[in-house]
Amino acid sequence: MIQTEITFFFPEVTTNLEPILKQMGERMVRSVQMNFERGGRPAWPAVRSGETPLVLTGQLKGSIGFRLEGEDTVVIAPMTELPYARIHQFGGVTHPTVTVNSKKFFWAMWMETGNGMWKAMALKSVGTKLNVVIPPRPYLMFQQEDIDWIMGLLGNSVIMEDKKETELVAA
Q1: pLDDT tens digit at each of 171 positions of the chain
Q2: Distance CA 29, CA 169 (A)
Q3: Distance in angstroms (rounded) separating the CA atoms of residues 14 and 30
């Protein structure tokens, strides 16, 4: 499963962190969902069809959630196993096989868009393996404003006995 973890190191914290970690998780889920709404932050590479990347069905965006692990970690990740989540985050090459149904789809897309790429794929024989390169479109990203908000929340909420500075580590 693909995920992003935020682990906090608090020396001798005297406060129950669960409510704070839940607030952070909610904030980070909203931030990741905003990445989808804005087509990436920074912008993702365009798709050939001209549509906004990663929003065709909304399943990936809708699957983003968080869970707490232990007393100091928030995990932001797709909460359902989506086979394409990893390749969209990191990019890669996939080799789908042309089927009768995919040929129908390719012809329909060619008719709708006039894009020769769809016609070329529709003319491929059933059983042909395609070579599809998917560029990385990192959606599990946090913005500096999110980090600043978290640090403000921690500064206002956590009482540390030794007054050491709190570190935020995104893994």
Answers
A1: 677 666 666 555 556 788 888 999 999 999 999 999 999 999 998 876 667 788 878 999 999 999 998 888 889 999 988 989 999 999 999 999 999 999 999 999 899 989 898 899 999 999 999 998 999 999 998 898 998 898 888 776 554 433 334 344 443
A2: 17
A3: 28
Output the CA–CA distances (angstroms, integers) from residue 118 to 16, 72, 93, 94, 132, in the order listed: 56, 49, 18, 17, 13
Helix (H) or strand (E) holding 104: helix 100-113
> What b-and-e string marks burial along 97-113, b requiring 16 or more CB atoms within 10 Å of the CB?
ebeeebbeebeebbeee
Q: Parallel, antiparallel, or unpaired for β 64-69 and 73-78? A: antiparallel
* Distance separating alpha carbons of residues 69 and 21, to the nearest angstrom: 10
- CA distance to 9, 11, 64, 94, per residue, from 32 (Å): 23, 29, 8, 25
Contact status, residue 63 vs residue 93, Cβ threshold 8 Å: no
